[in-house]
Amino acid sequence: MRIQDKVCLITGGASGIGEATARLFAKEGGKIAVVDIDVKGGNRVVDELVGQGYPAIFIEADVADELPAAIAVDAVVKHFGRIDVLFNNAGVSAVGDVVDCDPGDWDRVMRVNLRGVYLLSHLVVPVMRQQGGGIIINMSSTIAVIGLKSRAAYATSKGAVLGLTRAMAADHSQENIRVAAVLPGTVYTPFVEGYLKKHHAGHYQEAVDNLKKRQLNNELMTPEDVAYSVLFLASDEARFALGTALIVDGGVSTAKVF
Ligand SMILES: NC(=O)c1ccc[n+]([C@@H]2O[C@H](COP(=O)([O-])OP(=O)(O)OC[C@H]3O[C@@H](n4cnc5c(N)ncnc54)[C@H](O)[C@@H]3O)[C@@H](O)[C@H]2O)c1
User: Which of 28, 29, 131, 241 is 20 to 30 Å apart from 156, CA to CA?
Assistant: First the structure.
């Protein structure tokens, strides 16, 4: 039990990496609050956890919308009494370079990926301060440290999340609030599946194989692979991971096999 009794607020916990993290955190003793716009998915994950005897709640909220986000944070504190771990994971993507990416898509990506991380942190840091500390893990991406074609808005948002993580670490470490970022490479989740089906419909398998080839081990990462890294950051084992950018990407950002 690596996070026994820690209250964990997971945004975007209704799917993919957030869902896998909710399950793993529950198994490791965490009390789970899933915050997501996807009511069906959120209830599915939480009902399953509760059915297995784990403490878990679902709260519907858009992480970038002030009032619903504030209500969600209050609801978690009311239900569990505190928030020990905030996993700012909810995110969306858009494809395109600066020309193809229209202003609407740009704003949508920045709103969820960056404003959402800022807003939840803005609301949760005071809770953590009052209780004497906590841990915030922000979802960045390998794309924050390498260039990847046709992802102008997404790359910018994830680079900014990394910058925000380091700023927050500088601001809050001395209040016993530990802040770190996780930077996954390509993970096979509904997020990636949806992208491949939309943009590589005629040659889906070839596109999956190409993604595998980018990995040093020729395998696609699973949501669980990322969840274990997040678990490490959420555990007391990571007490010196202050402002850390934990890259888990199958080697994509560190080496190439030509
Ligand atoms: N899948 C990858 O390859 C990959 C790689 C690096 C980083 N990431 C990041 O990991 C995070 C999770 O991605 P995933 O692949 O699990 O995606 P996913 O689409 O499976 O899950 C994302 C979740 O976020 C929720 N969400 C979206 N907008 C929201 C909002 N405004 N408020 C609340 N919830 C909202 C969705 O409903 C969904 O449940 C994202 O931030 C993504 O950018 C993903």
Answer: 241
Domain 7-185+222-248 is in which class? alpha beta
Q: Is 126 exposed, middle or buried (0-12, 13-18, 19+ CB in 10 A)?
A: exposed
Indicate if ligand 1 lies below 6 Å from the C-beta of 191.
Answer: yes
pLDDT tens digits, 43-87: 999 999 999 999 999 999 999 999 999 999 999 999 999 999 999
- For atom 25 of ligand 1, which residue has the closest CA? 12
Look at residues 139, 191, 135 and name the one whose alpha carbon lies nearest to residue 161.
Answer: 139
Q: Write down the domain spans for the chain.
A: 7-185+222-248, 188-220
**Could you list the active site residues?**
154
Residue 38, helix vs strand vs coil:
coil
Q: Map tokens 């993919």 to a residue.
A: 16
92 Cβ below 6 A of ligand 1: yes
Regarding the beta carbon of 68 and ligand 1, being less than 6 Å apart is answered: no
